[in-house]
Amino acid sequence: MYKKNSLLMLSLIYISLTLATLFFLLPLIWIFRTSLITKVQAYQIPPTWNASLTLDNYFSIFRNNPFGHYFINSFGIALITTIVAILIGAMAAYWIARRPGESGRIKVSILTSQMIPPVVMVIPLSLLIKNAGIDDTWFALIMAYLTFNLPYVIWILISFFESIPQELDEACEIDGCTTTRAYFSVILPLAAPGIMATAVYSFIVAWNEFMFALNLTGLKTRTLPVAMANLETQQGVMIAELCASTIVAILPVVVLSVFIKKYLVNGLTFGSVK
Questions:
Q1: 8, 96, 115, 195: least CB-packed within 10 angstroms?
Q2: Which domains are delineated in the chain?
């Protein structure tokens, strides 16, 4: 009787997990399917289930629009933003984590700064960047992204560094290591899972950002989210090409997650238990 109940419970768990997985995957599967059919078939209601597959939509977005250029813009801006945010954020988080008496007040200040809606910052930042003569540049967008990305990175990394015993710092000091050498040689390798997980988060935020990119970029520095929004024309939404561009936009994040899956899983639980 016990084995039957256990088998029934296990079956219910697997069925629930399968349904939950399908709930999230079916929209992506449908987008992928729509990206592989012709433009005429993409508009048909009810859909044509035996539609012939083609890669014309992928060729179209790169042939009729400079999506390759937009992709490079998005990837370069997101990558540089992530690197800068991690380099500065890790050092700031380590400094805060090693000051228990002050860390609480600093963390509250960081959290308070993030209560300001990003939309409030768009117009002031746009005016500052335009007056500085750096509009329509990577530098302008990277600086804008760091205003909301860096505080989150610091906030997340503080808990990871707090999980590393401070006795390690003291042991390094006894062995003659400077604070800088101890940080780079001992602390950073131990915090690698948390740093990698935070880097993925930072990259995804910068990669998907739309509002600042819409206001601070032109044709030269346009990113993928803005380019995808332009596929809604006066003749209607170009559904097939929009689905193709969505798959192209998803791929870097998927590939990134697969390559650092081990670090990502470890980082999600690294700072949870002290």
A1: 115
A2: 65-270 (1.10.3720.10)
